[in-house]
Amino acid sequence: MADNKYNLIAYYPGCALEGTGSAYNTSTKAVGKALGLGLEEVKNWNCCGAMEVKNIDPKIQTYLSSRVMSIAANEMGHDVVMAPCNGCYHNLKKAEYDLTHDEGSKEVTERLSSKAGHATYQAGQVETIHALDWIKKSIGEDGIKSRVKNSLSGLKVANYYGCMYTRPRHIFPEKDKGPGTESTSAPHFMDDILDAAGADNVDFALKTACCGGAHTLSDSDTSTKLVLNILQAAEESGADVIATECPTCHTGLEMHQIRAEKRFGVKTNVKILYFTQLLGIALGLNPRKVGVHENVSKPMGMLRERRIV
Amino acid sequence: MTSLAAIEARIDAFATAPVTYREDAETLLRLAEEVLEYWLDANGKVPVTRKKEGFRLLALHAQSAKGDPSFNACRETCREIAYRYNLAMSVADVGELTRAVATMRRLVQHLSLFISGKCQSAQLGEFCCASRPLRQTDSEMLEN
Prior knowledge:
The complex is a heterodimer of chains A (309) and B (144). Chain A has helices at residues 22-34, 52-56, 58-75, 86-101, 103-116, 131-138, 140-147, 189-196, 220-236, 247-264, 275-282, 300-305; strands at residues 8-11, 38-41, 80-82, 127-129, 156-159, 200-201, 241-244, 271-274. Chain A is α/β, with parallel strands linked by helices and 309 residues long. Chain A has 2 domains: 4-129, Glutathione S-transferase Yfyf (Class Pi), Chain A, domain 2 (Up-down Bundle), CATH 1.20.1050.140; 149-305, Rossmann fold, CATH 3.40.50.11810. In chain B, helix 2 (22-42) packs parallel to helix 3.
């Protein structure tokens, strides 16, 4: 059921979407425009604390994420923040959880907010959602079906969610609430959205498997082997494409696909596209408009072959 | 204790031979258990023999995850292995059985790669998905 609460929301792209994940940024905005949904970028946003800050001092990460939510709520008047990056989404949810349950985090956040000269974020002021929630809740499957101009029919898609979208479970209290809600053990929102766009989703057992993303520099071989197993599993399940919803996963899959061939001599042909790129194409947008030319796995030939573009 | 390399070689062997037997699902489930036994043994723990939800693999995962939130990163992998095992045991069609076992092989391989990675760097899986509640101290986590 579509909910117009999500028709105009605060948008927090995060650092990755201004760099390696720029096609995700482009396609998210293009899809929003095509669907008549408004995104207002959080003013003067900062890093969410990512992985680095979180592991040095989790309370500082909580503060950094809280500042983003504070600006959205107190300076822009929004009660929903959408973060398409799994890392940002995860950290904002974690900050919300910590500020609800941990007095120490609240104290640090109050102190740093006061020092920085902005209102302290109070838990519950905003609802943080992912781009998948945004599409699913604002438009829904029926809304997508009625807007599809260029069905993805015949395109076999393995939906890869990665780890931060569902883990750890305790920071996502809205999930696992039965029909209509997302599942942390078997996520399906991306499957639902792309199914509505006409895609043939394949049974993909490694949809939440670890890609070794954070270890990609310190232990590249482990990351490459983990990614290669994901790519091969997708191919074995018959997929033409792995759909992603996280810039870190996406970059990891594309980069390690190349590295796997160079380092281990194993070539895989499955293409990697953001779910927003696939949805945009289904909505009739030009592939360039959703940044497909930026994809390292060069999916245009396959998309033409399948008569998707 | 079998080495991880030996376990991985046995998992790899399934890639070259077409799989059509339910016994292969049994073997893969056992290999997955051996991977977790290896991790527990490397950490000075005695692997449990009990079962959780009908699977020793899930009990071993729970034991490994105790006090180590980074084991979140392979929780679904273990649950998928159990699911595919059940599927392999229940389907009548040879094609479906083959697919179930082939998928199991990928999952067991992923578990093995993950544990092998953790044996080199225990933080694997810690930076991404393992945020633990701040209110819990290390000792509280170990008690849970």
